[in-house]
Each structure stands twice: as structure tokens, then as C-alpha cells.
Amino acid sequence: MRIGILSSNPESWRMQQFARAARKLRVRFCPINPLDTKLEMKDGKFLVRHPELDLTTLASSIHGGNRKCFPYILHLLDHMEGMGIPLTANSLAVWKTRNKFVTLQECAKAGLRVPDTFLTYSQDLALMGMDKMHMPVVIKLLESSSGRGIMKAQNIIEVEGLTGTLKALDQLIFAQEYVNSPGVDYRVFVVGGEIIGAMKRKGRKGMWKANIAVGGRGYKINLDSEKEEMALKTAEVLNTGVAGVDIIEDERGPMILEANITPGFEGLVKYTGINPAPKIIEYAKSIAKK
User: Fold this and answer.
1) Do the first three CATH levels of 117-177 and 181-283 match, i.e. the same topology?
2) Residues 231, 190: contact at Cβ < 8 Å?
3) What angle do CA 121, 124, 125 make, to 5 degrees?
């Protein structure tokens, strides 16, 4: 069985984990750089060409993440689906999780709690909206990741500066209430409709972000049933077989903060000893075309 994985960095630590897991599970592992592909439609049939690989032989494919040329990645996923290749996440699921506002929209429509949030192109409307939010507030880029592109404004002067910068860069203004859970959140790994691991993340002293990528630490935990149900439902409504769901909590209870369709798991391995790579390969095998 040949399983593909889309990634522009086949030598990364993450890809090495997938390759090792595939060998143990006796699966032929095929890294595919999306930027080395060509999409064709001929006589109503879909074909993805690659200089070295025959993608028609793939039994399924894992979305490994690639921030370069994102619109092309969506076309590639659609094309692979048109070829009948089962995917761990289709193009719509990838788009919904890449755009953090859409992620929250989908979760809220499904009845999941999310932080108070607004999105606008107008700086004037953004500043008006701040009148109804307590300071500090969090301002994000729509496609932020790993704790980067997320800023905290302590007062209206800082809000004006940050929103003015976004406006000058022709970016949408995405703002959110600051949830009073100083430097603490929960990362839950969901694969194939099951929770395979979770950790509590805590930022360095004085830091309000808990992400491992910006210096946070992880702690192995046993999730309570409410957070388990929220994480599973988030993956379900986003229609993805693999997800890293981030949950934050204050006195009102837990809320969905975001979901990642290609979650990094080096921190999970380091702090809990749980490696999701074998489970992800097993899931890709389970959805493979016969």
C-alpha cells in the first residue's frame, strides 16, 4: 500500500516520524512536494503529474501542511479527490481550519462555545466594536499559527495602532476578547474520531501565550468529558480526520480557541511521550481505496 503525504519539507522531524511509523506498519510512504506537481484535466478526467511519482497508485493521502501557494494546495486537494484518492482532509476542511474566523464560525454554528469575536475591514467599525469589549483585547491575523501573528492590546491607543497597521497592510481586522486564563490552554489531538492524546500548555512566567513554539511547556493530562466532547465535535464539524484542537477555559467554562489540521506534535512527544504519527498512518490506511 502506498500512502502519500503533502509536504514541502521531506527532511523535517515531523516527516521523519511519519516515515518511521510507515516502515513499522509496512506501508510505502511517499512524500509529495505540492510545488512539484502539475494539475491536468483531459476528457473530463483528473490527473496530477509529478516528475518522479505516479499518484494514480496512491491508496490515500495525508495533508502534511504547506504555507506556500495556498490556493494551489486547495486545487491540488480537489484534483486528488477527483482522482478518487481518499484524503485525511479535503480542500474545504483545509480552508476552514486555515482561516481562524471560519473555524470559529463553524464551531459556533454547531453550538460549541467560542470567545466573543468580530471581523471587519473598517478600522472605524473595529474601534466602535471595542467599546463593547473589556480591555485587554486580542488582535489576530486570520492565518496565524504557532502563537505568531497574535497580539494583545492593553488599551484603546494600542488598539488604534494595531488596527491602523492592519489597515495599512490591507488586512482584515480580526479581534477577540481576552480570555482570563493567563498563559494556559489545552491541546487535544484527534485522529479518526478518537482522542489519542492531550496536554495542558503553560506559557513562560509573565507570558500570556501558551504555545510550545513560543516557549511554553506541556503537561500530560487526563481530559474531562466536556473537553473531550468539544474536541471530537470540533473535528467532526470541520470534517477532518486529523486535528489539533485548542481549548481555553475561564470561569465560564471551556471554549474552542482554534483547530489545526496539520498540528505540530513535537511538543506532545516531548512532554507526554505520545507520538501521533503511527495513529495518523493507521487512519490513512483505514480510509484507503481498496
Assistant:
1) no
2) yes
3) 65
Q: What tens digit of pLDDT does each residue of 48-104 get?
A: 999 999 999 999 999 876 667 888 999 999 999 999 999 999 999 999 999 999 999
Q: Where are the domains of the chain?
A: 2-95, 117-177, 181-283
Please say whether the beta carbons of 64 and 14 come within 8 A: yes
CATH of domain 181-283: 3.30.470.20
Alpha carbons 30 and 36: distance in angstroms, whole number: 13
At the fourth CATH level, the homologous superfamily of domain 117-177 is: ATP-grasp fold, A domain (3.30.1490.20)
**Considering the entire predicted model, what is its pTM?**
0.92
Residue 148 in grid coordinates: 505568531
pLDDT tens-digit profile of 8-35? 888 889 999 999 999 999 999 999 999 9
| Burial (Cβ within 10 Å: 0-12, 13-18, ≥19) of residue 289 | exposed
Percent of the residues in the chain that have a pLDDT greater than 90, as a whole number: 73
Place of cell 484524503: 87
Bridge partners of 40, per DSSP, are 47
CATH code, 2-95: 3.40.50.20
